[in-house]
Write a structure and sequence with these properties.
Blueprint lengths: L2 H24 L28 E6 L7 E4 L5 E2 L7 E2 L5 H12 L8 E7 L7 E6 L5 E4 L6 H7 L12 E7 L2 E7 L1 H5 L15 E4 L5
Parallel strand pairs: 6-10
Antiparallel strand pairs: 1-2, 1-5, 3-4, 6-7, 8-9, 8-10
């Protein structure tokens, strides 16, 4: 290899390294993400909330020209033929129907609106998230009366490296983040149904790797 090319390459490497070192040394610490609490604090009071990515069927009685199927945008809004930006995320289908009736009352006489959901995604705050040594870590749409066993079935159980009995469940209660120990190995491997617990929207399950 040409000596001059080799020396030039070394200079480039040193300059690039110095750039990244100086960049790292002057960088600030990012703020910690905020976990937004779910609107559901009781398993018997669960109501589905609309979220970005949901597909909504909006039917306006006697007004097919303003009825239709609408996908919720990432900003939580939809656009209709009459109104460009209607906020829909975080509302139940019934709440949204009443809200749209109020909006359409400006254009139509006594509008009657029905809203149904075709594709369920929901807000992040209403999803159950499983990370770590699950076979298929993922965010799951909460279903009424969902339990830990239901969640583990959805994620395919544990990997061979998981320490299921050291797993933790993180939940926001009264604005405070709380952490609970859960015994997944006892539930799945030993069949101890007493280890099964109720889940709530927004729960996060962290499954660590076992130390062999």
């Amino acid at each position: 290899m040409d000596i001059r090319f080799t020396e030039s390459l070394k200079v480039v490497i040193l300059l690039v390294s110095a750039y990244f070192v100086s960049g790292c040394s002057s960088s600030s610490t990012l703020p910690t993400a905020t976990l937004h609490p779910s609107n559901t604090a009781n398993i018997n009071a669960y109501k589905y909330l609309i979220g970005a990515g949901d597909v909504l069927n909006i039917f306006v009685w006697r007004n097919p020209e303003v009825s239709g199927s609408f996908k919720v945008r990432p900003d939580g809004m939809i656009t209709t033929s009459l109104v460009e930006d209607i906020p829909v995320a975080g509302k139940t289908p019934t709440e949204l129907a009443r809200s749209i009736e109020e909006i359409l009352a400006t254009y139509l006489r006594d509008p009657v609106v029905t809203v149904t959901v075709d594709s369920f995604v929901g807000p992040f705050s209403e999803q159950v998230r499983v990370i770590g040594e699950a076979a298929e870590p993922q965010a799951i749409n909460y279903t009424q009366h969902m339990t830990l066993l239901d969640v583990m079935i959805r994620v395919g159980g544990l990997t061979e490296f998981a320490d299921g009995d050291d797993a933790v469940l993180i939940r926001i209660e009264n604005g405070q983040q709380k952490q609970y120990e859960i015994m997944i190995d006892e539930l799945l491997k030993d069949g101890n149904i007493a280890a099964n617990v109720d889940m709530l929207p927004g729960d996060i399950i962290i499954i660590p790797e076992a130390w062999f």
